[in-house]
Specification:
The complex is a heterodimer of chains A (79) and B (168). In chain A, α1 crosses α2. Chain A is built from 3 helices and 2 strands. Chain A is an alpha+beta fold and 79 residues long. Helices cover 66% and strands 13% of the residues of chain A. The longest helix of chain A has 20 residues. The N terminus of chain B is likely disordered. The interface between A and B is large, with 41 and 33 residues.
Chain lengths: 79, 168
């Protein structure tokens, strides 16, 4: 899994663990990835070892970049 | 640094969104396939909008990346046919995944059957011989370009007795 996707999946799993303490880490990650895939935020590819891996989709990367820019713009306009 | 205490809502996953049997695998759904096909269409549009000579490598790499991971799961042909059905495309390429996905995502008016066949042969050659840690663009350039790579494949296929298409 690439760094950016791993970061957000990790946060989502932490959040879900609070309300679903009985789920294993594998189940939590799978649930998060299923929803990210459904939203078009996560996609599969082959890593440099030729194994199937997950990464953030271009749509998700664009949303992250927009959110970062919005946050920076807000900071600049803060008194 | 993004404020983790109050990130944008669409990055979060609410616990109420969890439903159905809680499995530990992630099926590849029709929705995922639609997103993948749309991504390749965007890659095609980008390469058409670019004036760079090797812009086509970006599109071909996207097609290759998609079919290559399908092939790892031995589901390339099945998913390529599903893609053709999703796009309501009836063509002779239903038995060759790379050609099928090119038919689904590139402008049919600009990519004729002969070009599609050439590109699919190129990508099959790359699937067989490209190292996993090398980009498609550098692999093709090292082979002398698209036409040279296709010629090499044809030569190697003849010497190894490989058929026209291969089961992926």
């Amino acid at each position: 899994m690439d760094t950016k996707l791993r970061f957000w999946v990790g946060i989502a799993c932490q959040n879900l663990r609070l309300t679903h303490p009985g789920l294993s880490k594998r189940q939590l990650v799978a649930q998060v990835l299923r929803h990210y895939q459904h939203r078009g935020h996560a996609m599969r590819c082959l890593d440099i070892s030729g194994r199937v891996a997950w990464k953030a989709s271009p749509i998700f990367l664009e949303m992250l970049a927009d959110a970062k820019q919005d946050a920076q713009d807000e900071l600049e306009h803060c008194p | 640094m993004t404020d983790l205490a109050a990130p944008p809502g669409h990055f979060w996953l609410a616990s109420t969104e969890l439903k159905g049997p809680l499995r530990d695998d992630v099926p590849y759904t029709r929705q995922a396939l639609r997103y993948d096909l749309r991504r390749l269409e965007v890659a095609w549009e980008d390469c058409q909008a670019s004036r760079q000579r090797d812009a086509i490598y970006g599109y071909l790499a996207s097609v290759f990346d998609l079919v290559a991971w399908w092939a790892t799961e031995r589901r390339a042909l099945e998913r390529a046919r599903q893609a053709l059905r999703l796009r309501s495309i009836h063509c002779r390429d239903h038995d060759e995944p790379f050609a099928a996905i090119i038919a689904c995502t590139a402008d049919a008016g600009k990519v004729d059957r002969r070009t599609r066949s050439k590109w699919s042969r190129l990508l099959r050659y790359a699937l067989k011989y490209k190292p996993a840690d090398e980009s498609l663009a550098s692999f093709i350039k090292a082979a002398g370009g698209i036409n040279q790579a296709v010629s090499r494949f044809a030569h190697q296929a003849r010497s190894e007795g490989i058929g026209k298409g291969r089961a992926l």
